[in-house]
Amino acid sequence: MDFLIQSLFVWALTLTGYEDPNYLPDIKAVSHQTLATTLCKSSYCTAVAYYDKNTETIFLITVWTSKLMMEPVVS
Coil, helix or strand for 58? Predict the structure, then answer.
């Protein structure tokens, strides 16, 4: 999982021109309902992930992360 995330960050930095922050954010698996409540204030929401700059955490829906062998840590 770490290799995949590192590779995606290198790719994103290359495409955007942003400076490398020299660290990886935390990654947490959450249910789609948690994302919908947090981002959309409703049950209808097409979001699959978001980055919280205050906690420096990327939240991904559980379906994606389970395929990458991560256990959900927030439901």
Answer: strand
DSSP helix/strand/coil, 5: helix
Specify the amino acid at residue 35: L
Q: Is residue 31 within 8 Å of 75, Cβ to Cβ?
A: yes
Please name the residue that has the structure tokens 């559980």. 62
Residues 6+ apart with CB under 8 A from 27: 1, 5, 57, 58, 60, 65, 70
* pLDDT digits 0-9 by tens, 3-41: 777 788 788 889 998 888 888 788 888 888 888 888 887
25: left (phi over 0), alpha (psi -120 to 50) or beta: beta
pTM recorded for the entire structure: 0.62
Report d(CA 16, CA 27) in Å as an integer.
21
